[in-house]
Amino acid sequence: MLMQSSAIFSTKPAWAPTPRGVKSLYGTSSDDSNSMAATVPGPKWAQKTITLPPHHRGCHLVTSQILNQIRPDLSEFKCGLAHLFLQHTSASLTINENYDSDVRDDTETFLNKIVPEGRSAPWKHTLEGPDDMPAHIKSSMFGCALTIPITDGQLNMGTWQGIWLCEHRNAPTARRVVVTLNGIGI
Amino acid sequence: MLMQSSAIFSTKPAWAPTPRGVKSLYGTSSDDSNSMAATVPGPKWAQKTITLPPHHRGCHLVTSQILNQIRPDLSEFKCGLAHLFLQHTSASLTINENYDSDVRDDTETFLNKIVPEGRSAPWKHTLEGPDDMPAHIKSSMFGCALTIPITDGQLNMGTWQGIWLCEHRNAPTARRVVVTLNGIGI
Amino acid sequence: MLMQSSAIFSTKPAWAPTPRGVKSLYGTSSDDSNSMAATVPGPKWAQKTITLPPHHRGCHLVTSQILNQIRPDLSEFKCGLAHLFLQHTSASLTINENYDSDVRDDTETFLNKIVPEGRSAPWKHTLEGPDDMPAHIKSSMFGCALTIPITDGQLNMGTWQGIWLCEHRNAPTARRVVVTLNGIGI
Question: Helices in A25-123 by DSSP H: which ranges?
Fold first, then answer.
């Protein structure tokens, strides 16, 4: 959370000899937070908007892209929850297999099979192109948000789980994700 | 959270000259919370059950209906998460396009197309009417809960995002939503 | 959270006469937590990995199985959120009807109808068996995580809601769920 738009909220209790109030850190260096958190772990919040670069239509494994932008903050949580919120209505976030890219291709095949597009589709909303209304439907099918447990500074996913960005539009565009971390500091 | 069933939990730290414990507020005036929170922002919880009035079968934009019932509480959070939990199994909550009502109509068309209903449907569970089993399936497809980031007292959704209530039953009925707000006070 | 892998994080504020820092409890007896929480309720976290025994392919009501493994911890929260995270990509968690098992059977019928399997399926990913790729798709349709409000030490679900484990593979296997509880202590 070292970007301008980021904020770290670390709640630190009073201790002797001088009682102190909760201290909120807005975009301060995390070094200070680290050093203090080691002594007095308390409730902590961090929030940051990250950007995923444009991806072509289909399902993409983006675990590393996301971790690379939040790892320093994530590492400060002993236990908590990471919430990822995609601010768009024509793409989605889901958790699925992280190894074989065929699984992602097959999932895209499924989505296209189940949601009609083009001449055969019954949609009224067509002004933004034939891929737009199907994109909205797919977005609600898979959802735009994920909540993942944090344990010992890491996302506590299963061995084969990864975070997918599913881009449902034909034209690749950058996608914004609001990341909110909440938990107990290390 | 000024209704009888509401509760605000605001954790306030000790400060000079008298150290104080965490203070829990149950249905108290939020004025007190506001004034103190400005000085000593700390972890805060608020929980309230709101009711959405009956909606006819289909997808409905309910962002304003929800905000009107939680805005005073929401405005007290600098950073956090808002959790909305629909206490029903034949309707759903989803986030999708907030502008063109055709998108909502087309989504209802899709749901009806994908989940068979009536004579052609293979369902065993038919005692509650032909629309009941399809409603349960649609409820799990879109889900009954949303988690949305809070930033500076507002839901931090994308420009085109809104909250939809999807009513899957033919008979409109009021729907309960448990709203839980959690974060750092302003 | 009395298992070896569990942890309770209870934030307790300073109070007279001696200001104290936040206290983190790692796998300690919950008795201590209970007695203190009654006096000074504060932000609290608990996290635990539980195991659901093997279930045959289909949808299963597992509310009791889960509650039996988290009830003592859950009962310590006055207000909060329970997060359940299935660490697998070929099963799912959803909330749906808790009474008539026909609803679960019909939902399984729907999933099998909508996701092709076997000779008629277009999947590239077939090495792990004909049921594997359909299982991945179903997992993203229903999702692998749930967030449920906690009120007065209990999951605040609707009268007819229950937690379902949907097993999408033919071979039953035990499934791990990371449970994270967060809220204000009783």
Answer: 30-39, 63-74, 101-114
